[in-house]
Design brief:
Distance between the termini of chain A: 39 Å
Helix content of chain B: under 10%
Number of strands of chain A: 12
Strand content of chain A: over 45%
Order of helices and strands of chain B: EEEEEEEEEEE
Oligomer: heterodimer
Shape of chain A: globular
Distance between the termini of chain B: 36 Å
Number of strands of chain B: 11
Strand content of chain B: over 45%
Largest interface: A-B, 26 and 32 residues
Number of helices of chain A: 0
Structural class of chain B: mainly beta
Order of helices and strands of chain A: EEEEEEEEEEEE
Radius of gyration of chain B: 13 Å
């Protein structure tokens, strides 16, 4: 079974508007971390935001916020006031706390975001 | 500045040839990882290492080999047994076994077959 599911291969948003990128996850661990990375066309992976399984409040980092719904196992990324430079591939990822996985990061297939003027 | 250096940025492999991708980090991280990225498939784990002289296979280890002789270095060899090696390869590092710790990534190596 997929550990991370991103159901939106592509999303389009107009500049200055907000956009939500969906992510659902699957784990039986109580302890886990959820991450979002941005990958521009140059290829590097840029860390955006982190949410821990025990965090009661949604994480925020500048224009990025994470809509964490633990019971639904979803961790959607919200980008407010989109900018042209936000056009990139976005990956949702998870690290589990169990020792069997030794801290590896599981990735979804990504969502290609295009911001238009 | 601390970070991860991957080299070369572009690499070409001839039929039957082994090639080695370099990954060096100065973040003092114990754990290092190799991921392969194909269009539309996200990142898939090839190998990972939690400590020096130890490493484990990931999801797609066939046709690849690694070594971890130094904490700072985790080279990946793409062997001739890997029949479809064309992909973007990303190296990463982190604190081991800590699910709250993010992975730091290098800038990647694009491998193509001639």
């Amino acid at each position: 079974a997929q550990k991370i599911t991103q159901t939106q291969p592509g999303m389009f948003v107009q500049e200055k508007e907000a956009v939500t990128l969906d992510c659902t996850y699957d784990t039986s661990d109580q302890s886990y971390g959820l991450f979002w990375y941005k990958q521009p066309s140059s290829g590097e992976m840029i860390f955006l935001i982190y949410q821990g399984s025990y965090d009661e409040q949604n994480a925020t980092e500048g224009r990025y916020s994470l809509n964490f719904q633990k019971a639904r196992k979803s961790a959607n990324l919200v980008i407010s006031a989109s900018q042209l430079g936000d056009s990139a591939m976005y990956f949702c990822a998870m690290r589990e706390g169990g020792s069997s996985t030794l801290g590896r990061l599981y990735f979804g297939r990504g969502t290609q975001l295009t911001v238009w003027p | 500045d601390g970070g991860i250096t991957q080299s070369p940025k572009y690499l070409f492999r001839k039929e039957g040839q082994n090639v080695t991708l370099s990954c060096e980090q100065n973040l003092n991280h114990d754990a290092m990882y190799w991921y392969r990225q194909d269009p539309g498939q996200g990142l898939r784990l090839i190998y990972y290492s939690q400590i020096v002289n130890d490493f484990q296979k990931g999801d797609i280890a066939e046709g690849y080999s690694v070594s971890r002789e130094k904490k700072e270095s985790f080279p990946l060899t793409v062997t001739s047994a890997q029949k479809n090696p064309t992909a973007f390869y990303l190296c990463a590092s982190s604190r081991p076994g800590d699910y709250t710790s993010k992975l730091f990534f290098g800038s990647g190596t694009q491998l193509s077959v001639l």
